[in-house]
Design a protein that fits this description.
Blueprint: E1 10-11, E2 16-17, H1 27-30, H2 49-52, H3 69-77, H4 100-109, H5 113-135
Antiparallel strand pairs: 1-2
């Protein structure tokens, strides 16, 4: 499969990378398991294209993400993620977690962050990170 303007060709059926791609990172194989890369809202930053390309440090280390109400709330409560919140058994009941922007993000990205929070509660941060890295995704799909 070749995209216009792309210097490389990837045959996904055989996993073969052809001319001009030796220096390009293979995003699927560059995904590492790191519980520290689980965002406050349950997304897995370790599988995000921006993180893998070095354009973002992830939720925890992104000092520019002061706009994120979830990140602020978790910081104020001294909890790692919404999975630890005692106020809401279902994160969708929280107005900070389930605000307009998160609904738009979920729709556009087909992302189910509430399912991510449920998986963190079930598997823990390390288990969630491992599951998301194995799937090569930053969120569970709707």
């Amino acid at each position: 499969m070749t995209r216009p303007g792309s210097p490389c060709r990837v045959d996904r059926s055989r996993g073969v990378r052809e001319k001009g791609v030796a220096d390009m990172p293979d995003i699927k194989t560059d995904i590492k398991v790191d519980a520290g890369l689980v965002a406050k809202c349950g997304l897995y930053c370790g599988a995000c294209g921006s993180y893998l390309k070095g354009k973002c440090k992830g939720c925890t280390d992104n000092v520019k993400a002061t706009w994120c109400a979830i990140r602020t709330c978790c910081g104020d409560r001294h909890i790692a993620t919404c999975a630890e919140c005692a106020d809401f058994s279902d994160p969708r009941d929280c107005k900070k977690f389930n605000n307009f922007m998160s609904k738009v993000f979920g729709l556009v990205m087909r992302s189910d962050r509430a399912a991510c929070i449920a998986q963190i509660r079930e598997l823990g941060l390390e288990g969630h990170a491992a599951a998301m890295a194995a799937a090569g995704r930053q969120s569970i799909r709707r």
